From TrEMBL:
SUPFAM superfamilies: Acyl-CoA N-acyltransferases (Nat). The keyword Transferase applies. Belongs to the FemABX family. The keyword Metal-binding does not apply. It comes from the Bacteria. Keywords: Acyltransferase, Cell shape, Cell wall biogenesis/degradation, Peptidoglycan synthesis, Transferase. InterPro entries: Acyl_CoA_acyltransferase, FEMABX, GNAT_dom, PG_Glycine_Bridge_Synth. Residues 199-363 form the N-acetyltransferase domain. This is Peptidoglycan bridge formation glycyltransferase FemA/FemB family protein.
Length: 363
């Protein structure tokens, strides 16, 4: 499985074998797709049991890992359905990690500035990929269903993400100066300000996850979300780094001995992710968040990555959108918003699936 992922250049870290050990409350299974003797795809399936019933949801977060430009994608998905049917599943959920639409920096800024626009989905994207269109068409024809009305964060993985390309279209790696020039003036000024005020960013060790977690819990309380326990991040560190040394790292931004921002960073092949981030309420003026982002971007670029992924955003761009600050911060990096096809379900037992769907919507 890892050999196939390496040959493709990258895949979501949620589809690596190690991720099954991170999500220990699910049962994991690794599968391969074959065309004759040729391995054409891989996938990590996570099975979640229904309460009091011997039936399971089969979930492939940001997977499976396929060449989505193939003509036989429908046959691959049919094979997946046939396989999970043998595992007492009532439905299978996938999230094709193929870019469907792209909104560039200028388009996003214009959308934010336009009071008549409330969502990126109301704005013509700069790119709509043929590959993404084909995937959606195949899914619809195959009877897969998706809640296309959802534009924010859902129970699964986000449909909208923010990515900073680190290479030009010809494959040339960008220089640090070129990446900086792509940022807005505020980002560049804040990076310089952090340096001038003495903010230092260092690469941490497993023990530093405790420092990260303190700031993370402060952020969770401030922003109103339920934080994960320290043990989750320690398990994530242990299993991801056991699979490949250095796959997960922790960065800490410090000012006069105080941790002012902390992040986790994951790399698979040519793709790097800013996976979790946290900052203190105190000393926000020293711009630790900008400093730590710049450190991770440089690390990804030094590793020869093609993409620095800042993970989920919402499509909402209205001035009163509760998540508007997130996209405003990320767009300053000079990156772009990308939309995947989203998560799609294939009901196998329609009655159980409908009951499950109603339960999730009530939650």
């Amino acid at each position: 499985m890892l050999e196939f992922i390496a040959a493709r250049g990258s895949a979501s870290f949620l589809q690596t074998p190690a991720w099954a050990r991170v999500k220990s409350e699910w049962r994991g299974e690794r599968v391969g797709f074959y065309d004759g003797d040729e391995l054409t795809g891989v996938g990590l399936i996570l099975y979640r049991k229904l309460p009091k019933l011997p039936r399971y949801l089969a979930y492939l977060p940001e997977g499976p890992v396929l060449d989505w430009s193939r003509d036989d994608i429908g046959e691959h998905l049919d094979a997946l359905i046939a396989h999970v049917k043998k595992r007492q599943t009532f439905a299978v959920r996938i999230g094709p990690a193929v870019v469907h639409r792209v909104w560039g920096t200028k388009t996003i800024k214009n959308a934010i500035a336009d009071d008549a626009v409330t969502s990126l989905t109301e704005v013509e994207p700069d790119v709509t990929t043929v590959e993404g269109q084909r995937v959606i068409s195949v899914l619809k024809q195959g009877g897969w269903v998706s809640d296309q009305s959802v534009h924010g964060f859902t129970a699964g993985q986000p449909q909208f993400n923010f990515q900073l390309p680190l290479r030009y279209e010809d494959g040339t790696q960008k220089t640090e100066d070129e990446i900086l020039k792509g940022m807005n003036q505020l980002w560049r000024r804040n990076i310089k300000k952090a340096t001038k005020l003495g903010v230092e960013v260092r690469l941490g060790t497993r023990e530093d996850l405790q420092e990260f977690h303190k700031v993370y819990l402060e952020t969770a309380e401030r922003d109103g979300f339920t934080g994960r326990p320290l043990e989750y991040f320690e398990r994530m560190w242990d299993v991801l780094n056991a699979e490949q040394q250095g796959r997960m790292q922790v960065f800490l931004a410090e000012h006069d001995g105080d941790v002012v921002a902390a992040t986790t960073f994951v790399t698979v092949g040519e793709h790097a992710w800013y996976s979790y981030g946290a900052s203190t309420t105190a000393k926000r003026e020293v711009r630790g968040s900008n400093a730590i982002q710049w450190a991770m971007i440089r690390a990804a670029n030094d590793a020869g990555c093609a993409v620095y992924d800042m993970r989920g955003i919402v499509a909402g761009v209205a001035s009163d959108d509760p998540e508007i600050g997130l996209i405003q911060f990320k767009v300053g990096s000079g990156g772009q918003a990308v939309a995947f096809p989203g998560e799609w379900d294939k009901p196998i037992n329609p009655i159980l699936y409908k009951a499950f769907d109603l339960y999730m919507k009530r939650r």
